[in-house]
């Protein structure tokens, strides 16, 4: 399987104080990522900062949704919100999503398959 990353949108995260999640059972992150199962990633790989960031900056949630609609098998906000990325199995869909994001004025980095 080839996976392509498309990073979008840098933000100034000053002043954000997201609520930390309660301790819950978490999947084995290493096994989850190594599975290369993007459906499993969508179900189990969660960034707890997304909810409070999306509430304050809904445009970030929109970007994530646009990546998924463009064919990303997985999309998420990195860390505390410096970027939004999509993982694509189809390089043409990744390129089209990157070009669309550029047209919208976002800074984009598109990596190759690994």
Key phrases:
114 residues, alpha+beta, Alpha-Beta Plaits, four-stranded antiparallel β-sheet, 4 strands, 15% strand, globular, disordered N terminus
Explain what this protein looks like in three dimensions.
- A 4-stranded antiparallel β-sheet has the order 2-3-1-4.
- The protein has helices at residues 29-34, 38-44, 50-56, 58-69, 91-103, and strands at residues 4-8, 74-77, 84-88, 108-110.
- The protein is of the alpha+beta class and 114 residues long.
- Helix content is 39%, strand content 15%.
- The chain has a single domain (4-11, 34-110), classed as Alpha-Beta Plaits (2-Layer Sandwich), CATH 3.30.70.890.
- Residues 1-21 have low confidence and may be disordered.
- Report mean pLDDT, rounded to a whole number: 81
* Domain count: 1
CATH architecture: 2-Layer Sandwich
Q: Which segments are poorly predicted (pLDDT under 50) over 5 or more consecutive residues?
A: 1-21
Helix proportion: 25-40%
**What's the CATH superfamily, by name?**
GHMP kinase, C-terminal domain
User: Terminal Cα separation, in Å?
Assistant: 9 Å
Order of helices and strands: EHHHHEEHE
Q: Main β-sheet: number of strands, strand sense, barrel status?
A: 4 strands, antiparallel
**What's the assembly state of these chains?**
single chain
If strands are numbered along the chain, what order do they take across the biggest sheet? 2-3-1-4
Q: Please provide the count of β strands.
A: 4
DSSP strand content: 5-15%
């Amino acid at each position: 399987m080839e996976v392509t990353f498309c990073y979008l949108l840098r933000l100034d995260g000053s002043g954000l104080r997201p609520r930390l999640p309660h301790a819950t059972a978490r999947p084995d992150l290493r096994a989850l990522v190594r599975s290369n199962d993007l459906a499993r990633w969508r179900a189990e790989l969660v960034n707890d900062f997304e909810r409070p960031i999306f509430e304050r900056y809904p445009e970030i949630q929109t970007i994530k949704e646009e990546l998924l609609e463009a064919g990303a098998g997985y999309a998420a906000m990195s860390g505390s919100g410096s970027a939004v990325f999509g993982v694509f199995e189809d390089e043409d869909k990744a390129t089209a999503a990157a070009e669309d994001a550029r047209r919208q004025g976002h800074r984009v980095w598109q990596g190759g398959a690994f």
